[in-house]
Amino acid sequence: MRNITPISVSWKKLAVPIVALVLLIGVFNSFFTVSAGSVAVKLRFGKIVGAYGEGLHAKVPFVDKVEKFSVRIKKDSFQTEAFSKDLQTVGLTLAINHRILPDTIESIYRNLGPQYTATVLKPMVEEWTKAVIAKYSADSLISNRVEVARELDQILKEKMKEKEVIVSDIAITNFEFSPQFLKAVEEKQIAEQEAKRATNLVEKVKKEAEQKILQAEAEAKSLRLQREVVSDELIKLRQVEAQLKAIEKWDGHMPTYMAGDQMPFVMTK
């Protein structure tokens, strides 16, 4: 039977690369970088120990934790529902631009947390959207979209400023209404168009009647003026014109007798 010689392992030889690897990992974990447009907070056992801007920074490996935030303008889209003044359900889609200031990062992390968009901004948007939409009737929301967005913008800017979040602007990108409401709006528009056509027809008939009245009044005035112009001189002129026409028609023969006891008419030179 063959004797098996046990393999001897030199722990010293293994310890050297292990230690070197740990040191190498430690060195790499002793630094962190913050890119442009970002800030970071450093936590040590859950406690904030510092806030950092862009660049290379040191930390205690395996002890310190780094949370990074963007300070660039972020655009988030929120969908929510609200009731209008006339109790119609209105669906809205809002686009909101917001950001945080670098010098408020510690307060943001301590009071709002890294997910402040979901935990603070979204509930604030939903709450005040319902409050503003309730001031308007459903059919006036579309025509007053800019005014509604402006009012929401002012409110959320003030409310989020208290939370140290800067809201740049808000836009309402979409309104959604129930099918029943849309059908009612369509029927109302058709009725308004028919009423407008009827009104236009009445106005047309009215104008035609007014034109006829004006024409009749003008003709009556003309006749009245003609009657006023008739005078004795005009009557004599018409008699002379009648005699001239009679002379033009005379054939040159004198009448041979006259009726009754009157004398014959004799022309003398």
From TrEMBL:
GO terms for cellular component: membrane. Keywords: Coiled coil. SUPFAM superfamilies: Band 7/SPFH domain (SSF117892). Residues 29-189 form the Band domain. It is found in: Membrane. Residues 188-233 form a coiled coil. It is a single-pass membrane protein. The keyword Metal-binding does not apply. CDD domains: SPFH_prohibitin (cd03401). Pfam families: Band_7. InterPro entries: Band_7 (IPR001107), Band_7/SPFH_dom_sf (IPR036013), Prohibitin (IPR000163). Signal peptide: none annotated. PANTHER family: PROHIBITIN (PTHR23222), PROHIBITIN 1 (PTHR23222:SF0). This is Band 7 domain-containing protein. The lineage of its organism: Bacteria, Pseudomonadati, Elusimicrobiota, Elusimicrobia, Elusimicrobiales.
